[in-house]
Design goal:
8-stranded mixed beta sheet, single chain, Rossmann fold, alpha/beta, 8 helices, 304 residues, 33% helix, 3-stranded mixed beta sheet
Length: 304
């Protein structure tokens, strides 16, 4: 009997290790038109998730690992690499084609670890702006989580930051830039009585645009559930106000509430969610609350 128990415990240990190894080790996606790493979560009853990083570029590896550890299959997609031309994505965040994301969406739906009837988008900052834009233009997406999101499309981020006032749109469709909010000059910033802070520049830029409606992300076109999370100490842009505006506009045109917004008063722009993933170290404070809210949202969407 002791021998049987020993064998059983050893088998369970190997199963646990194999499952964990599967969820934290990336599989480089090759022979495709996009740049991504795949983290299979092993639960084929759940939608696959596309993770989109912010203005730092590259892939949001830590969040992909964290979600995969909870059984979600995640594709960490790069859409630009700041200052690095890898031959697949550009080295600046300007006029990124929305069409680029068609291939990773299709690829993820065909994996054996995912459902084939939709994909969930999760984005941080510029990645949240992108996730909302994609979902507004494509009903294949089954849910959106925006972390410190934007309610408008912004100008792109060029290689030379000194030229940002002349940058084109961040995103394009059919070769044309989406309507966007351009950044104000320093003189206009000071004229508005604001300081040279990133958050102030975004506030002043919105205030200076008379036809702001053109640049609004058309969340009214989104029918899938949305979760917006923001921090009260965001020094990048007014994510709290923009997230509230997103949900207000989205819910106003629907028979039921499809967009929820949670603000964490003491959280920063990244909500404490960008730390490296370690299975032995748990999140704490607002980061833990925010991540648990994400997991609850994902469970609800997958159960529908």
């Amino acid at each position: 009997m002791r021998y049987v128990l020993t064998i059983l415990l050893a088998s369970l240990t190997m199963m646990t290790f194999s499952a964990f190894a599967k969820t934290t080790l990336a599989e480089k996606v090759i022979n495709t038109s996009f740049d991504a790493d795949y983290y299979p979560g092993g639960d084929s009853t759940k939608y696959g998730i596309i993770i989109l990083n912010g203005s730092g570029g590259t892939k949001w590896t830590s969040m992909a690992q964290r979600l995969a550890h909870h059984g979600h299959s995640v594709l960490a997609v790069s859409y630009f690499n700041r200052g690095i031309d890898n031959g697949i994505v550009p080295d600046s965040l300007e006029m990124i084609p929305l069409e680029y994301f068609d291939a990773p969406k299709v690829w993820l739906k065909t994996q054996k670890e995912t459902r084939n009837d939709g994909v969930i988008l999760i984005g941080l900052s510029k990645g949240a702006e992108l996730a909302l834009v994609l979902s507004a233009h494509d009903n294949d997406y089954s849910g959106v989580i925006g972390l410190s999101p934007s309610t408008v499309v912004w100008a792109g981020i060029p290689k030379k930051m000194s030229t940002i006032m002349n940058a084109p749109s961040s995103w394009s469709l059919n070769g044309k830039g989406l309507p966007f909010v351009p950044y104000v000059t320093m003189s206009n910033l000071l004229k508005a009585g604001l300081k040279d802070k990133t958050s102030d520049r975004h506030i002043a830029s919105i205030a200076a645009m008379h036809d702001i409606e053109k640049a609004l992300i058309q969340v009214e076109n989104i029918d899938s559930p949305m979760l917006m999370l923001s921090g009260g100490r965001d020094d990048m842009w007014p994510a709290n106000e923009m997230a509230a505006n997103l949900c207000e506009r989205a819910n106003a045109t629907k028979k039921k509430v499809i967009c929820a917004h949670h603000n964490y008063e003491n959280a920063s722009h990244v909500l404490g969610l960008t730390d490296s993933f370690n299975k032995d170290i748990s999140l704490s404070g607002d980061a833990k609350l925010a991540f648990n809210e994400m997991l609850n949202f994902l469970n609800n969407v997958n159960s529908d």
